[in-house]
Design brief:
Blueprint: E1 2-6, H1 10-22, E2 28-32, E3 43-46, H2 51-64, H3 67-77, H4 84-97, H5 109-131, E4 135-136, E5 142-146, H6 153-163, E6 169-173, E7 178-182, E8 187-191, H7 198-207, H8 212-225, H9 234-240
Helix pairs in contact: 1-2, 3-5, 4-5, 5-6
Amino acid sequence: MTTVLYDGSFEGWLTGVFEIYEYKLQDVVFAKEEASAGFLFGATHRVVTDEKKAGRVLSGLQKRLSAEGLKWIVWTFLSDLDQYEDSMWRFARHVFDSPQNVEEDLSNRAVWEVKKAANRVKRERHRMEAFVRFKLTKDGLYYAIIEPECDVLLLICRHFESRYADQRWLIYDARRKYGIYYDLEKVDTVALDFHHGRATSRVIEEISDEREEVYQELWRLYFKSVTIDARKNMRLHLQHMPKRYWKHLTEKMPGNGL
C-alpha cells in the first residue's frame, strides 16, 4: 500500500490524483502531511501541489461529469468525513475508467459515498444559513460563532453577503479556526485563534454593544411568545435543530426554557 501525502488543499488532492496515474501507484490511500507521523509502514509518496497537474485533473473531471457531479467531489472534500479523500479518489478513478457518465451508477460504492457526503454538506449549509445568530460589537461589527460539522463557510458567504449587504459582519468557524469577513464591499477569509473560556467571555462582554443584551432578550421573548406549548414536538424539533447547535443560538441560551 502507498500513502499519498498531500498538503490538505483541494489542489493538492488533485495533484495527488495526477501523480497516482503518472507514477502508476497501486493500492493508494490519501493522508494529510500533518498526520504523516502515523504512517510508519509501507511506501510513501509525497505530493507537492502543482497547479498545472491539478488543472489537468479538474479539466478531465469537468469533461466527464455534469456540474452536479463535479459538485459532489468538491463538497465531499468539505464534508470532513473519515477518509473522504479516498472516497473521492475511488469516484475519480471510476469516472476516468468508464466510457459514459457514472453519476447514476449508485450501485457503485464510490458514487454512493460521494453523493451521500455531498448531501451531508448541503444539509449543513442550509442549517448554518438558518442557525447563524449575530451579535453586535461597540464598533458596529456583527459577529457570529459557529461549529459546523462540515467546512461550509465559503458555501454560505454569498447568502449572508446578499442578505446583510449594508453592515459589516464576521462569521467564525470555531472548529476550523478561520472566518469570513464582509467589509461592505467584499468577503475575505481571515485566520483567527479564538478559544472559548472565561477570559474570552469577558473580552466579548467588553467589546459588545451595550444594547446587545437587550436585543438578545427581545429575541428570546419573541421566540418564546410564538411557541405554542400544546403543539411542542421535541422529537421533530431535535430533528430540525440538533442539540449540537444550541450553544450558539440566542433562543437556546439559559432563561428561555426551551
